[in-house]
Specification:
184 residues; alpha+beta; two-stranded antiparallel sheet
């Protein structure tokens, strides 16, 4: 089920990268330890997945690619390596991936998972902010993040070769300052 939700959420990108029409037969994801994941379920299975990390802990997600060319395998691994390259500052809880099934989009699942991550961040003493990267072309996600209080911190543009390779022009790093509740 984890493979299906991630492949569904990233199907356009995975299909473009691999040239494969049915990516569910070739690209598999496996959660090794669900400690740094928020998984949303409905009657039909998993509808959303969010992974997060701090400087001290990382989600354990394994990418398995079968029955594809060597070039396709390398290209896919590099692209999804971009999701995990960022090492957050010690006071930031970093969202390394958020995926919502295509059929479940627009139903508040992404907002619900983000609200859960805000709760987790508020419980951790050293965490002051939530951070994430979003592709410049993902206008719906950027609009949602801004609505939830995220601010654009930095924009990184990819070079021409990288743009052709992964199909995106760059990423925006966004942060939300947590509103810690004082307890007396």
């Amino acid at each position: 089920m984890v493979s299906k939700i991630i492949n569904d959420a990233f199907s356009k990108k995975l299909s473009a990268l691999s040239g494969l029409k049915n990516i569910n037969e070739h690209i598999f994801w496996k959660i090794k330890d669900d400690k740094n994941f928020i998984i949303e379920k409905n009657l039909y299975g998993i509808s959303g997945l969010l992974s997060y990390k701090t400087r001290r802990s990382k989600p354990k997600l394994k990418l398995i690619i079968k029955n594809v060319s060597f070039f396709t395998r390398i290209r896919t691994m590099i692209t999804f390596g971009l999701l995990s390259y960022f090492n957050p500052p010690s006071n930031v809880l970093y969202i390394s991936m958020i995926a919502v099934s295509k059929t479940e989009r627009g139903k508040g699942i992404g907002t619900h998972m983000l609200n859960k991550i805000f709760e987790i961040g508020n419980r951790l003493d050293r965490i002051k902010k939530i951070g994430l990267h979003v592709f410049l072309e993902n206008e719906k996600a950027i609009k949602l993040y801004k609505k939830l209080g995220f601010e654009e911190i930095k924009t990184d543009y990819f070079g021409d070769t990288m743009q052709k390779f992964i199909g995106y022009s760059g990423v925006i790093y966004m942060e939300k300052l947590l509103e810690k509740q004082l307890i007396y």
